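User: I'm putting together a small comparison set for a docking exercise, and I want a reference complex before I start. The sequence is below, and the ligand is NDP. Could you produce the 3D structure with the ligand included, as structure tokens?
Assistant: Of course. I'll restate your input first, then give the structure tokens for the complex.
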Amino acid sequence: MATKRKNIAVLGSTGSIGTQALEVIEANPGYFSAYALTAGSNVELLIEQCRRFEPEMAAIADESKYRRLKEALEDLPVKVFAGPEAIAQIAELEVVDIVLTAMVGYSGLKPTIHAVKAGKTIALANKETLVVAGELINELCRQYQASIIPVDSEHSAIFQCLTGEGSDTVEQLILTASGGPFRTYRREELEYVTPSQALKHPNWDMGAKITIDSASMMNKGFEVIEAKWLFGVDASRIQVVVHPQSIIHSMVQFRDGSIKAQLGLPDMKLPIQYAFTYPDRLLTNFHRLDFNLYPQFTFEKPDPEKFRNLAYAYYALEQGGNMPCMLNAANEIVVAAFLKEKIGFLQMSDIIETTMATSTFIHHPGYDDYVRTDAEARRIAEELIKKTDK
Ligand code: NDP
Ligand code: MG
């Protein structure tokens, strides 16, 4: 692959995806360079990463950490910035070839819009951006000729299955789900599960928020929404199937009935690297799948009574407009409250449902509407949490 080294802006370099992306970059110095690194508030790790990768730029969202970052990097030629605006500007830099959006939650929306408007190639991990504003992002991508390559393992799998296929040949997308740590629990048992139980994902090691989303299956609901916007397939043709081994990352069924799947050990470095090299593939030393160690692949139907969030995600998609934005905002608030043990596991879904029923519905939202909806839904969810007496 005789190509120029790609300059990568890693937004969210201190997180689970961000640190794995840096491992991919470090393993392939001839192909990638970490041009810019950004973080939320973990200034010490960002400093360490800057010393190791010597990016051109570094930015931290938390402005109170600016001075520490600046002073610690004084001896290096790294340009240092702080605040969400600086991160958004990094996403649109001319010299950046690929923007990896690996920050968590709603914070990803603004820089992703900047990257899209600059016509960038976006390796998208931050699924919340598409949950909140998928329609707007797609419209902007068309207008500014930006392209999005999925990093989420299921969507990377589907993307790989679709490569080389004609348009209009897809019958359905089959998203696999591990089922999370509570797959075999009864609904009554879910009432008393703790954050530390929910944080123990059986197959993947991820950031706290997405790990809770996986335990509650909100993550899979978000992925249904993400798939709709990435692949232009309606929710009625996106099926979720529980596959506890997490080896089949997802599948596509075509109109002749044929099904293609992408398989591999659960390791996010593979979809991250593929998003960087697409349509090429680079040699890796990642562990290879040994079928002898996986004599059984099993499949189950998700239980919508137990995992109501999945049903809410389909409902939000069906309603359209700003409903998925409400879903996301309420979810961010309840996940934070659950992690602080302010509410129980099942109360998360109750609050999400009431927030969606109470927030102001807008049929055709623009960017400012999303900002308002996000704020309103957060306020409503916070008030509902205050009223709970856990
Ligand atoms: P982490 O919580 O591990 O990392 C989040 C990153 O975002 C950190 O670098 C954090 O900085 C940064 N960040 C947090 N808040 C802000 C903010 N307000 N402004 C700017 N940056 C911020 O999350 P993950 O890496 O697990 O997930 C990142 C995204 O990727 C999520 O959208 C998730 O859904 C998606 N994803 C993750 C997968 C995984 O395996 N982890 C798999 C598929 C998708 P700091 O730590 O410095 O505060
Ligand atoms: Mg996923």
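The pocket of NDP (ligand 1) is lined by residues 12-18, 39-42, 61, 87, 102-104, 107, 125-128, 152, 204, 206-207, 209-210, 268 (CB under 6 Å). The mean pLDDT is 97.
User: Thanks, that's exactly what I needed.
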